[in-house]
Amino acid sequence: MMKEASVTKFMQSRAAGLIAAALAVAGGWWAYTCGGMERLDGFRGIVLASPNLWIAKPEVSLWVNLGLNLLAACCMAALTNVSNLMRSSSILYAGLFLVMQLGMPELLGQFYGGTVMVLAAVVCSTMLFSCYDGAGGNRRIFMIILLLSAGTLCLYPLAVMIPVFLLGMAQMKAMNGRSLTAAALGLITPAWILWGGGLVDGSDIHWPDFHSIFKGTDSAGAAQLITAAAVTVFTAVATWVMSLTKMIAYNARTRSMNGFLSLMTLAMIVMMAVDHDYMLAYVPTLNFCAAYQAAHYVSTRRHERGYVTVLSIISVYTLLYIWQTIG
User: Fold this and answer.
1) pLDDT at 274 (0 to 100)
2) Is this structure's pTM higher than 0.85?
3) 175: left (phi over 0), alpha (psi -120 to 50) or beta
4) What are the residues whose beta carbons fall under 8 Å from the beta carbon of 114, sequence distance 6 or more?
5) For 275-296, how does the pLDDT look when each residue is reduced to its tens digit (9 = 90+)?
6) At a CB cut-off of 8 Å and minimum separation 6, what does 183 contact?
7) Cα–Cα distance measured from residue 303 to residue 307, given in angstroms and rounded to the nearest whole number
8) How far apart are CA 63 and CA 53, in angstroms?
9) Is the pLDDT of residue 270 over 70?
């Protein structure tokens, strides 16, 4: 029993997180060198160029994306520790996120909108959690909506996050007249600056084309990506259901934070089903949510062979990685 508990504890440690980071970098680089990685072309933001068009050189895109994925994982580790989200110092959350990202090496190996979206989700969640019961004033609310509104101009799926975070304000007991005013100002400020400064005009608006995001990808590649996404949805839902009774026993603040992440998980699942043309943009944020749900489940069952769950997830995503790199 002690040995099993020690294995579970190691998987939640900083050393295990560093191993996951090293594997993500090595796996992303290897998938890139193997060739056959389909570049995500043809997208455009509502007004500005979409992130997949920002970096022309594939190798630079690879390393930028790997670096930003590591940054996102570090922010996740900080989020759980600062907010005491899981009532433990575990950074399993961040490690599982990198493992899940590795399950889709085609997305890990190039910079695109999904990376921007997950970074925005983590950073804005951190700010939102600091606003519980009105703490932190309305400046952070303004900044959250400002970042999401600005991001929407180059990545329209980020628009989905705005109502999610507005509902999150209500969950965190931070919604009042002043906070709503701050949110409204944050929403209109980016467009106000661009149009008011004469940087863009009406002719620059470009609504999404809604073409298939699998354009240029063969049926085998599409099946691989859909399978990986389906596995992540199952992982998120299953671990959330199994943790539900534990969440109910938390204090009001922790329940609010967990409730918000559950809401974001549901939003990502729904949008991937509804907005399937741009499904891949939601994948990293879904991985962010699923990694938390899985890590939270393990943290609440430290002495119940939690390592089995972790090893099962690692094994499944390793198989997905192998399938996509040699398939």
Assistant:
1) 86
2) yes
3) beta
4) 107, 280, 281, 282, 283, 284, 285
5) 877 888 899 999 999 999 998 8
6) 141, 142, 144, 145, 166, 169
7) 9
8) 15
9) yes
